[in-house]
Amino acid sequence: MVWFRKRLIVYVLFIAIAIWFSAVTAEFSFVSLFRLENTWDFIQRNFWPLRWELVPYLLQQSLITLSVAFLGTLVALCLALPISFLAASNTSVSKAGYYAVRSSLSLVRSVPEIVFGLIFVVSLGLGPFAALLAIFLHNVGVLGKLISELIEAAESGPQEAMKSVGSSRRIGQIFSIIPQIWPNVLSHYFYRFEVAIRTSLVLGMIGGGGLGQSLMNYYNSLAYEAMATAISIIMILVIVVDVIGGIVRKRVI
Amino acid sequence: MLSLDNVTVTYDKETEPALSNLTLTIKEGEFVCVLGRSGAGKSTFIRTINGLQTLTRGAVHVSGKEVCQLSEKETRNLRTGMGMIFQHFYLIPRLSVKQNVLTGRFGKKKAYQNLLGLFSEEEIKQADYYLQEVGLASFANRRVEHLSGGQKQRVGIARAMMQEPYLLLGDEPVASLDPSTSDSIFRLIRTLHEQRNLTTIINVHDVDLAKKYASRILALKKGELIFDGHPSELTDKVYGLIYEEEALDQRAL
């Protein structure tokens, strides 16, 4: 047992207590787990046949969802890139500036998109624009943090080389850091894009338009076959984005 | 052109200085090799010259200016005239060989010109010329990651030459290359040195390379200068002194 230390027993004990506590709080029950046939039964009875005539309409709606997710995250990336340089300890303006930018990023991140969504739906009215803004704000916080951590982990050698040729601080940082972290930036971006597609569905349910709104409408009017059709389209959408992300990343690396 | 007066550098949290009371002058057109064991202060010495390393005490003068008293802009100006090559090359990944060479101009141009890659025809011709000089003309458009170690160092040298330097600094430029590549890199540096009467200061592990190419050899031990003279004066006795403890350590093993 060379891999295990005595301290491990304490950790295991702590985790066991946490599991037990969470299970009780979440009302976990094995009995219901084995009664999942109800769920299966519901799916089997109501989700078939798919409503193929809805596909053109749903595709149109999915375009809204996709646009909201894409634009929201891309603009967020453009803003997060410069901010992340201010939020990284090795490239920030000053110690105070570093903490200020860091904490504002966590503040933005701590607000879930759905809360932003609920606010914007009221203040800007129903529709995809509210969803777009909510996704944009949250992702500035998320991408800003992730990219700043990439910057902090970047190799310092090329930065030294840029200093040595006499380049200005900022230019040196841009050229020595961005090429290094670029593949990881893209991979974070595509993951956030994928998450944003799912988020924009949820935001659709509170009035943010797109596939989510259709899904909610069908659900509320007990049109389960139509709902199943929307779900299928969502699945295809997410898989397609994932595949495209993979291709782009491979080309970049 | 270059003088150190009582230069002492002590790193934080360390009691032993990395450089202690170093006083020496280097004249224009010299080819200086600095010998010493790992941790003897060779890198620290090189880095005090272009202001990458701040001093604890003493002063470094280059062309009559005191390096540590310069403003940020003046420091940048100073560095544009000093080419520097590194053990791990520190090229910019994802850029081509020629693009990397062009970054050598960064100190002499405005930020927007560097960002957008606005180089004059003359500068591009110059980059081609230096690539020719270092024997990489046919690799101009290849990405630097795909080069061998020796080729990467040649790119590093071309980048440094692109600065049109009056001083070339090398921080262990051949320490990660095989013996025959090391020799060809030194031959290249020697050629560039002779063509332009370029003052050259290089750290090196390999005593034979230093003896073969240098016009003057310095040896550091625990931050102190223990030898300063013509390569022919570097007797076995001095050699023993530089590497003394290493031999002892090996015997102890």
Structural features, described:
The complex is a heterodimer of chains A (253) and B (253). Chain A has helices at residues 7-25, 30-34, 37-46, 55-86, 95-110, 113-124, 128-153, 157-164, 169-208, 210-220, 224-252. The relative contact order of chain A is 0.13. Chain A has 11 helices and no strands. Chain A is 82% helix and 0% strand. Chain A is globular. With 253 residues, chain A is mainly α. Chain A has a single domain (52-252), classed as MetI-like (MetI-like fold, Orthogonal Bundle). The two termini of chain A are 41 Å apart. In chain B, strands 6-7-8-3-9-10 form a 6-stranded mixed beta sheet, sandwiched between helices. Chain B has a 4-stranded antiparallel beta sheet with strand order 2-1-4-5, with helices on one face. Chain B is built from 9 helices and 10 strands. With 253 residues, chain B is α/β, with parallel strands linked by helices. In chain B, strand 9 and strand 10 form a beta hairpin. Chain B folds into 2 domains: 1-81 and 167-253, 3-Layer(aba) Sandwich (Rossmann fold); 88-164, no CATH class. Chain B is globular, with a radius of gyration of 19 Å. Helices cover 39% and strands 22% of the residues of chain B. Chains A and B meet through helix 8 and helix 9 of A and helix 2, strand 6, helix 4 and helix 6 of B.
Largest sheet of chain A: none
Shape of chain B: globular
- The number of domains of chain A is 1
DSSP strand tally of chain B? 10
CA-based gyration radius of chain B: 19 Å
Average the pLDDT over all residues of chain A and give the rounded result: 91
Give Rg of chain A in angstroms. Answer: 23 Å
Note the run of SSEs of chain A as H and E.
HHHHHHHHHHH
Whole-number mean pLDDT of chain B: 92
Summarize the main sheet of chain B. Answer: 6 strands, mixed
Q: Choose one word for the global shape of chain A.
A: globular
Query: Which CATH architecture of the largest domain in chain B?
Result: 3-Layer(aba) Sandwich
- Major beta sheet, strand line-up of chain B: 6-7-8-3-9-10
Number of helices of chain A: 11
| Domains of chain B, number | 2
State the CATH topology of chain A.
MetI-like fold
Order of helices and strands of chain B: EEEHEEHEHHHHEHEHEEH
GO molecular function, one term (chain B): ABC-type phosphonate transporter activity
GO cellular component, one term (chain B): membrane
Protein name (chain B): Phosphonate ABC transporter ATP-binding protein
Keywords (chain B): ATP-binding, Cell membrane, Membrane, Nucleotide-binding, Phosphonate transport, Translocase, Transport
